[in-house]
Design brief:
Blueprint lengths: L20 E4 L4 E3 L6 H4 L16 E4 L5 H5 L6 H105 L11 H9 L1
Antiparallel strand pairs: 1-2, 1-3
The structure holds zinc ion (ZN) (2 copies).
The site of one zinc ion has 7 residues, from β2.
């Protein structure tokens, strides 16, 4: 078979049709496996919804005729042969239109899906960008708070160092004062060195 027109596709499952197949008087073609389809059972074309004459509306067809079968054309009037040839050409013309409509539909569906995917990707991308921005702001705030805490800590350390220094100065004087009072020495006399005190206490 010359396939310049491409392999005919089933007008229901869109697979390459294999003979024998069902052909309708409205020039639609279906695989034999759809024979039990309720629409075909009720003589309604699944391709275009036409209600078909129950006898001539659907027929089993083949792509080829055997050499013996071609002889049956020999007795036909040329007008009948032309009529048959016209019907065969109408079938192919309809199949080409149907195939082109089918691929146009598939293409527009694919484009629509792609546009929808693009749109949802864009939305997801914008959402992520906002989350990223919010996260960066949180990091900046945390950094700023960290700096504040470092400064507060430094102030506390300075204060602690200062307090420790004061304490270090106060403790010897305090313990000196205590040892003097224990010995009955007035604290104001005890302003000398601790060595003096120990000498006094030794007497
Ligand atoms: Zn099919
Ligand atoms: Zn039809």
């Amino acid at each position: 078979m010359n396939t310049d027109y491409g392999d005919p596709l089933c007008n229901l499952c869109w697979e390459v049709i294999k003979e024998p197949y069902i052909v309708t008087s409205c020039n639609h073609a279906f695989c034999m496996k759809h024979e039990s389809d309720p629409r075909i059972q009720q003589s309604t074309c699944p391709g275009c919804g036409s209600h078909l004459p129950s006898k001539s509306g659907m027929q089993v067809a083949r792509f080829r005729v055997s050499k013996e079968d071609t002889r049956s054309l020999c007795g036909l009037h040329p007008d009948v042969v032309i009529e048959l040839a016209t019907k065969a050409l109408d079938f192919w013309s309809m199949q080409e239109r149907t195939r082109s409509d089918f691929f146009a539909l598939k293409w527009s569906e694919a484009k629509k899906n792609k546009d929808e995917q693009k749109q949802s990707f864009k939305i997801a991308h914008e959402g992520l960008a906002q989350e990223l921005l919010a996260e960066r702001q949180r990091v900046q705030q945390a950094d700023a708070r960290g700096d504040e805490l470092k400064q507060e800590l430094q102030l506390l350390e300075d204060k602690y160092t200062e307090e420790t220094r004061k304490h270090a100065r106060t403790v010897p004087a305090y313990s000196h004062g205590r040892s003097c009072s224990a010995l009955g020495v007035p604290a104001k006399l005890a302003v000398g060195s601790s060595r003096d005190v120990s000498l006094e206490s030794g007497q």
